[in-house]
Specification:
Structural class: alpha/beta
Radius of gyration: 15 Å
Strand content: 15-25%
Largest sheet: 5 strands, mixed
Distance between the termini: 16 Å
Number of helices: 5
CATH architecture: 3-Layer(aba) Sandwich
Oligomer: single chain
Order of helices and strands: EHEEEEHHHH
Shape: globular
Strand order of the largest sheet: 2-1-3-5-4
C-alpha cells in the first residue's frame, strides 16, 4: 500500500431516504476501490446538520431515484451516472442514477433473501459507479480505461461481482494527479 497522498472529502446526498446498510456498503466499497491510488476519504452527508469538514479536495456525489435494491419502477436505457463538464472542463460534481443501476443489474438484488445482504450488494453497485465518476473528477478527464472500474460501460456482472476494481494503469493515472 502506498502512503496517503490526498485527503479527499466526498460530500454526498441521497434525494430520498436510504438504508444505512446501502450507505455503509457504498462508502466501504468506494474506499476499497480507490485506496490503492493513495487517497484517504472522509464522507460527509450534505443533509447532515454537522458542518462540512475541511479537506484538500472536495468531490460532490448526488444520488437520485430510489436508492434501494427493490423497486417496481421501470427504467429506460440511460447512463448510470454523469460527471459534469462545462466548457470542456471536468468538474468535481457527479450525479448517480440509482434507478438505472437497479435496472442494469435487473434481478440480481432479489437474492439472497436477507434484506441486509441485498442492501449491501446494492451499496457495492452504487460504489462502483460512484468510483468511476470520481476517477473522472480526480483526473479532470472524460477519458475511460480499457478495463475495470474506469471503463466506459458496466454490465450486470460488473455491478454485482464479488470483486471489481481499478485496473493498475488507472490506479497510476489517478495517483499521477497528485504528484
Amino acid at each position: 500500500m502506498h502512503s496517503v497522498v490526498l485527503l479527499a472529502l466526498i460530500a454526498y446526498r441521497f434525494d430520498a431516504p436510504v438504508s444505512r446498510h446501502v450507505v455503509d456498503a457504498m462508502q466501504e466499497e468506494t474506499t476499497r476501490i480507490l485506496e490503492r491510488a493513495g487517497i484517504e476519504f472522509q464522507w460527509w452527508d450534505r443533509n447532515s446538520p454537522i458542518p462540512m469538514p475541511e479537506a484538500s479536495q472536495i468531490y460532490v456525489l448526488g444520488f437520485h431515484g430510489h436508492c434501494g435494491p427493490i423497486s417496481s419502477a421501470d427504467s429506460v436505457h440511460a447512463p448510470l451516472a454523469v460527471t459534469h463538464v462545462v466548457d470542456g472542463e471536468v468538474l468535481p460534481f457527479s450525479d448517480v442514477d440509482c434507478d438505472q443501476i437497479r435496472a442494469t443489474a435487473r434481478n440480481a438484488f432479489g437474492f439472497p433473501r436477507d434484506l441486509a445482504k441485498r442492501e449491501e450488494a446494492f451499496g457495492r453497485a452504487l460504489a462502483r459507479v460512484a468510483a468511476h465518476e470520481l476517477v473522472h473528477s480526480i483526473t479532470k478527464s472524460a477519458a475511460h480505461g480499457r478495463r475495470g472500474v474506469a471503463r466506459a460501460a458496466f454490465t450486470q456482472d460488473d455491478l454485482t461481482a464479488d470483486e471489481f476494481s481499478l485496473a493498475p494503469e488507472d490506479v497510476d493515472r489517478v495517483r499521477d494527479c497528485f504528484r
